Description:
The complex is a heterotrimer of chains A (246), B (341) and C (291). Chain A has 246 residues and is α/β, with parallel strands linked by helices. Chain A is built from nine helices and ten strands. Chain A has one domain: Rossmann fold (3-Layer(aba) Sandwich), CATH 3.40.50.300. In chain A, the strands form two sheets. Chain A has a six-stranded mixed β-sheet, sandwiched between helices. Chain A has a four-stranded antiparallel β-sheet with strand order 2-1-4-5, covered by helices on one side. Chain B is mainly alpha-helical. Helices cover 69% and strands 3% of the residues of chain B. In chain B, helix 2 runs antiparallel to helix 9. The longest helix of chain B has 28 residues. The C terminus of chain B is likely disordered. Chains in contact: A-C, B-C. At the B-C interface, helix 5, helix 9, helix 10 and helix 12 of B face helix 3, helix 4, helix 10 and helix 12 of C.
Amino acid sequence: MSNRAENGAPLLEVRDLVVHHGQLRALSGISLTVCPGEVYALIGANGAGKSTLLRTIAGLHHPTSGSVTYDGKDVTGLRPEKRASAGIVMVPEGRRLFPSLSLEENLKVGASYARKGPWDISRVYELFPWMKERRTQKTAQMSGGEQQSVAIGRALVANPRMLLLDELSLGLAPVIVQRIYAMLPQVLSSGITVLLVEQDVSQALRVATRLQCLLEGRTMLEGTPAEVTREQVEAAYFGVTDGSHA
Amino acid sequence: MKVTRSRRNVLWSGIGALVVLVVLFAFPYYVGPGTTGIMVQGLIVLTLASMWNLLAGYAGLVSVGQQAFFGLGAYFVLIPAMHGVTPWAGLFIAAIAAGVCALPLWWLVARLRLGYFAIATWVLAEVVMLVIEQISSVGGGTGMPLPGLSGMDAAVLTAYTYWAALIVAVLAIGGVYLLLRSKVGLVLTAIRDDERAARSSGVRVGLARMGVFVAAAAGCGAAGGVLAIEQLQVVPGTSGGVFSIQWTAEMAFAVIIGGIGTIEGPILGTIVFMALQQTLQSYNAWYLIVLGIVAVVIALFARRGLWGTLDERFNLRLFPVGYYLWSPTERRGRRRATTSV
Amino acid sequence: MQWVNAIIQGLLTGGLYALFACGLSLMFGVMKVVNLAHGDLATVAGYIGVGIIAISHMPVLWSIPVVVLLMAVLGYVMQRSILQAAITRGELTTLIVTFGLSIIIENGLQQFFKADSRGLGVGDSFITASFSIGSQITIAWFNLAVFVLAVVVLLGLQQFMSATRYGRLIRAVADDREAAQLSGADYRHVFGIAAAIAFGTVAIAGMCDGMITTISPTIGTDTILLFAFASVVIGGLGSLWGTLLGGVILGVAQAIGGQINPSWEQLAGYAVFLVVLVVRPEGLTSKGATA
């Protein structure tokens, strides 16, 4: 793909996305733009639609209406595997490692359709040094945090430009979560842009350059961590309205 | 809110069914034995198809081994006949005995998932056949003629056979209809819609399925008994014999083409099947090939079959087994308010 | 020492059964498809072999790779078209479609080959040539060769699955289709590769069978499919070597049964199958389901 997304032009643009799960409306007209180098966070309570949004961007859901534009091209109808090889790579909710494959084999699968770029398996081993010795082990026996790291590694070796992280903190102790998020700077410095979904609001606020809060499929709040107050976030998260937001 | 069993006046379709039945019953009086013979074949397939539809369309059980019960039914008419019981009474024995045989077989395959269940029923049918072929007193591998009907006038025999087949078919379809309107039918619909939810609300899923399996076995057994009477012999074996997979192919294809999951579907499918068989008669196994191709195409592109597609378009229902929900403002006869079974 | 000979024979036949079964097992595991037409594919392969030899007069052994290649291509094409369409429409549709295919193939073959059986004729002397161990035990070279071939194929399959890129992809797609998509894999293509392998292996088995005995239109369902399924069940779902073990046990059971009474041969095998089905149906049942 050509590098048209330089100079501040958005890498990812979502416009008025409406997504249904059967008859249930999961997203009602969501829009967002992510510029290169950003860390864009989606926060919100359970069922708000955050993961649905991410999955739709990754290509696993078809929107009822609206569009997803990546690097200037409309990818709304593109199959998920094509998006992955174009540079939109998702670390799915719940890790979703391949249980019958070893750690290294999981990474190798991630590298099967990789783009050219700075990331490869050995660089992932540098990022997560503990992996090298245990690379022939099956991942099912590993701890949640270790599995999460493998899942991230699997995504990195594909050399994404747009990395989607779905609920990294799910089921993990806060200490582990912090350690995992500690690798974010290294990811960013290699030129990857990040769009993440996070239940843990403080964690999201710590790493995000911009954020959006969803509730029942609608955007309640948007802005940078510096702009939004704690009260605003709480109000948006729980849907408590006093008429002071759009 | 009003809840009714059907939209239209069931009285008319009831009268229509009665008229059809009377006409059918009168067949032997004005139709030649050749045609009657064909009708008997058709009625056998109709019975089988209704049973296969009950299994696959309502209970979610795809059985590729129903020929086991079909064959057993034939033998359960043969054996009593060999001991002096008239084959006409033997039909009842066949149905009940086949149903009983279904119990241990169900126990063997009940827990299997859909696809494995299917192949396992095929293996079971094979085993049943192999076991029976060991029993020389019933003819072993070569089969045995059916005693007890010699000395009957040929025309009378044909007529009686036809009526037996007709009664079996009517009972089979009627039985399915009543079953689906009963509590069991409700259970089956619940399972079909959402099995886990059904289980957690205490619905006895396994029991309902077993009941259906046994009932279907009984129906197939009765049909097998009719075949024994019609052919005046019982021959095992997988090519042309009572345990042939061709029977399952015929019933399955009839159901799929006619419309799986509706009571009317098997009837329509059997008609299509018989029409195809008669036109391609001289071309040997072609009718089965054509039938198979049509069935595959319909399964892929018109899943609800001929009747199902008509039902969707024109809201036809001869056998109302679902419910219609009327909101107070809905005009009667205008639109279907909620989807039925 | 007829018993010993019979058991050895059964053991060697088990290799052939495993060869029949591994394609079936592969399609179970990867696509979650129970291919009711699997046995008939072996028959088709055999008849293709007959046809190729009749036209080109090439030696039988040379025709095997040709047939295998043709069948593999056929497998890929069928998977990408008919089978994929069935899979997206659900398990019921898939069963109906594969069953329909089985009937169509069998009756189609019967129409064209008129229910007579054909042998692939490598020459009687080749088939029956045997060697002896001691004075009592005789083993036919060809049966041994088929067993060895089966083991070689299974070894090759195992290597393929564990060490190659597509082997990994197949395993990954079998584990988690969506996650594989997220890594860039088009699962339909991977399914196609798996189907090609399944068709190819069953073609090898079909050709070997055609050389040992004769092929007729109905053996696909009469014996092959059910024996293959029985082998997989006895040996345990999901394991290549388990399938070999299952095939061997089936073959030996059949041999023992046949020794007691010739007409008990198949029954003995199925008896073992039923016992295993009741006692150890791992993988065949829905998780945690109780009636």
